[in-house]
Amino acid sequence: MARAVTKKTxxxxxxxxAPALAGREFSADGIRISVSASATRISLRAPAxxxxxxxxxLGLTLPRAPKTAAAAGGRAALWLGPDEWLVIDDAGGNPLAxxxxxxxxxxxxxxxxxxxxxxxxxxxxxAALNAxxxxxxxxxxxxxxxxxxxxxxxxEIVLYRAAENTFRVECWRSFSDYALAFLSQAAVDxxx
Length: 192
Fold this sequence. Notes:
Number of strands: 11
Oligomer: single chain
């Protein structure tokens, strides 16, 4: 009687997993568009009574005013609503773990794999963004540290002004090809 012999293998996947848009960038006169490195992101919801405890746990004061952000140590908290923030950690921290020990009422959900960040920099950055974003991006109306949920062409984005000529566009990964293509064409137009 023959016996079947099975051999267990621990084969590694033949294809390495890469972030959406990895390595893609575009530049034109006065503007550079690049995909930001992977970051940890959480969607944080909490009532006013929980803000102090969460701020302490995150190491920054959660902003309470519309269109504002707070940043410290490679981490930023963007105000999206009276009880809602997008927390982004570019420094390798884990904001979800930091919130897990907070006893105050809150909801923190890891959305790191849902979003892609595209950085738009240069003197023509605001002009390129305004090709598809109806907001006034002048420094007077949208100063450094400002953020908002808005649109870019046909998609919803979260826009954050990190420096005078540097914007971070957060979009869902399923829309990231569209966002990069839109911004690349807008950069050509803004540079003309």
